[in-house]
Structure formats: structure tokens, C-alpha cells
UniProtKB/TrEMBL annotation:
Keywords: Methyltransferase, Transferase. GO terms for molecular function: methyltransferase activity. The gene is Contig7373.g7882. The keyword NADP does not apply. Gene3D superfamilies: Vaccinia Virus protein VP39 (3.40.50.150). Belongs to the methyltransferase superfamily. This is Methyltransferase domain-containing protein. SUPFAM superfamilies: S-adenosyl-L-methionine-dependent methyltransferases. CDD domains: AdoMet_MTases. Residues 184-208 are annotated as: Disordered. Residues 184-195 have a biased composition (Acidic residues). Residues 196-208 have a biased composition (Basic and acidic residues). InterPro entries: Lys/N-term_MeTrsfase_sf (IPR051419), SAM-dependent_MTases_sf (IPR029063). It comes from Stylonychia lemnae (Ciliate).
Amino acid sequence: MPNYGDPQYWDQRYKEQEGTIFDWLEDYEAIEPLLDDIFQKRQDYSETDLTWRENLRILNLGCGNSILPEEMYDKGYKNIYNIDISHVVIEQMAKRNAINRPETLCVDGSYMSISYGTPENRVLHYKRPHLKFTVSTFEIAPEGKKSQDAVHYVYVCKKQEGAEEQCAINWAQVQQQIKKEECDDLLEDSDQDEEESKKDISDSSKLE
Ligand SMILES: C[S@@+](CC[C@H](N)C(=O)[O-])C[C@H]1O[C@@H](n2cnc3c(N)ncnc32)[C@H](O)[C@@H]1O
């Protein structure tokens, strides 16, 4: 059985499933009557004026790439905090919602990512032109482990005034750039595979 507590397992899984949506068990439509029953007990509850939904602060622990929090956001639940052990899925979800649900992080709000990823290959993503963050990087050596490999990096990205406007202006260009980088990576991988299979053939002919 896979190790569901291992962030690397989830990172790998979400990389492979990039662009897909997977809802474990129930969607919003299925749980809406239940939520209504629960929230009817609130003093500010109203069937017609749904502003009470904006007042709720919801923590979605282990959000994955499910569509549920997006459906809830669109139904008026604007304060949903989606967290996940996998930085890969958090980055994918941040991209997926950058335009239509940009209030996920308010101005002056901070996004924090705890990751094995080093600053050389992480910070560039937080500094993409559609984002207006100040980025602070910290290192934590996990208790009991001393080697450089074991270091965990913490990235704290604080959203600046004007971030939404900047996102609206630059998002299309960034999207294209990301697609191009993904194609380049695929080409590089297939070049490497080709090199390796040529090497295998020449190694095996040396043995014959
Ligand atoms: C079974 S999936 C559920 C995803 C989503 N909630 C859904 O219903 O479709 C479990 C999610 O929990 C995340 N996860 C596992 N351990 C976690 C932890 N300790 N803290 C936060 N998220 C965790 C995984 O990365 C994965 O996205």
C-alpha cells in the first residue's frame, strides 16, 4: 500500500496527474443539504441573503486537486483555507484559481510553503511576473538529521498591494511560458532517454 503520509508520494502523484481533477468521495452538490442543516443554527443564517457564507472561515485540510473548495467558493464561501502536505498540488491549485478565485490570499496575506525544493528551483516560481510577492526564505534542519539533504526550506510569500491587477495583466503570458517550459522539459527527458538507450546498446555490443 502507498505511504499516504509521505509528501514525496503525493508530490509525484500530483506531478503525474497535472491538469486533472480528482474528487475523493463527495462533491458540493451532495453535501449542500447537510451544510445547510448545520449552518441553519447560525445567528446570521438566511436562505435569501448568503453573506453569512462569507463570514465563515473554513479550513480544508489536505485539499488535493478536488473541485469541492472551488464549488464552495462560487457558492459564496469566500474564506476557505486550503492546505496540503504536497507543495506541488498547492502550486497547481494556486495557478488554477489565479484568475477566477484570486481572493484566496488577500493583500498582506502570506502564503507559506514548506518544502524539500531548494531556493534555486522554487523562488523563481514565486517571482513569476503574474505574482506580486515579497519572498522570504528560511531553512530548518529537521531534528536528529544533520546532512544537507535533510534541510527543509520554508518560503513565506507576502502578497503586495496591486497583486490582483498585476496577475490580470501578466497571467496569459506566464501561462504560455509555463507550457513552453513543460515542453522543453519533455524534450530534454526524451533526449536523455535516447542518450541512455544508445549507451546501453553500445555497452551491450562491447560485451558481445
Ligand atoms: C485522499 S486525498 C484527498 C484530497 C481531497 N480532499 C479530496 O477530497 O479529493 C488526501 C490529501 O491529503 C494530503 N495530505 C496527506 N497528509 C497530509 C498532512 N499531514 N497534512 C496535510 N495534507 C496531507 C495529500 O497530499 C492529499 O492531497
